[in-house]
Amino acid sequence: MKSFTLTTRRAVAGACALLALGLAGAAQAAWPDKPVTLVVPYSAGGPTDVVARLLAVPMGHSLGQTVVVENTVGAGGTIAPARVAKAKNDGYTILIHHMGMATAPALYKKLPYDPLKDFEYIGQVLDVPMTLLSRKDFPVNTFPELLDYVKKNQDKVTLANAGIGAVSQLCGMLFMHQVGVKLTTVPYKGAGPAMNDLMGGQVDLLCDQTTQTAPVIQDGKRAKVFGVTTPKRLSSMPNLPTLDEQGLKGFDVKVWHGMYAPKGTPKEVIEQLTKALNVAIKDENVKKRIAELSSDLVSPDKATPEGLRKHLEAEVARWDKVIKAAGVSAD
């Protein structure tokens, strides 16, 4: 009788253990069972926000849950990453951010997060090219003439940007670094005011995203354009040469974007998020809208955790040298 009871108890215990494992597996497989929040470091309507909202719909369809875009702005785009780094690592709070993830460590002495240690990587998303413009009455017409002019008149030339940490500032810094000049930089509170003053003739040069500059370039009357900052010409502007092919060898600046989750987010959750991201970048509506912005979605091999990790590591090292050489700090 005792033997039977013991055997029965063991069988019941074994069945309960199997049931518990089954329930745990079912619970795990149920992710996500509520909406996922995609945090954007910049205001609604800006380039990063536009991209986030484009991706949110097809990602939500893939995950079977709504992806809610939430704008968390401030401190040069560092508040949002800090928030996501401290969020619960269950996959329900994720981040989309541009190249600011790579430049922040060099710009901020007391950054409240570490881009290389405090996140899991979901994948790269897209690249937004940049273009170098001048006011319409600037006294040169070609890029070789521009290089010669800024070297001889660097104390007289003004270079606008959209503020500390803005991609326009970073592009300008790399331009000065590679040309070997120090121009007078003029920071603005946003790309719009900087562009307005360039077109109004108050500043000489501006390097900014095609999402901002394409209408001005296509108009052809309000500013001069000297080239695109990527190694290859843009399919949307095939007649616009690159800075690289015009003599500034190796010049390559694009506003790349990536998606991140808090450190410790389960591997299987990251896999589902990466799968959803890849579904989104293959979506026909997303591809059409991104092309209209003169931007490029990344190849599938880059839209992976490893692809983003390698790119971020290389970009952190690259911009650390440029920013320190320029002596710029956001603190």
UniProtKB/TrEMBL annotation:
<comment type="similarity">
    <text>Belongs to the UPF0065 (bug) family.</text>
</comment>
<protein>
    <recommendedName>
        <fullName>Tripartite tricarboxylate transporter substrate binding protein BugD</fullName>
    </recommendedName>
</protein>
<dbReference type="InterPro" id="IPR005064">
    <property type="entry name" value="BUG"/>
</dbReference>
<dbReference type="InterPro" id="IPR042100">
    <property type="entry name" value="Bug_dom1"/>
</dbReference>
<keyword id="KW-0732">Signal</keyword>
<feature type="signal peptide">
    <location>
        <begin position="1"/>
        <end position="29"/>
    </location>
</feature>
<dbReference type="Pfam" id="PF03401">
    <property type="entry name" value="TctC"/>
</dbReference>
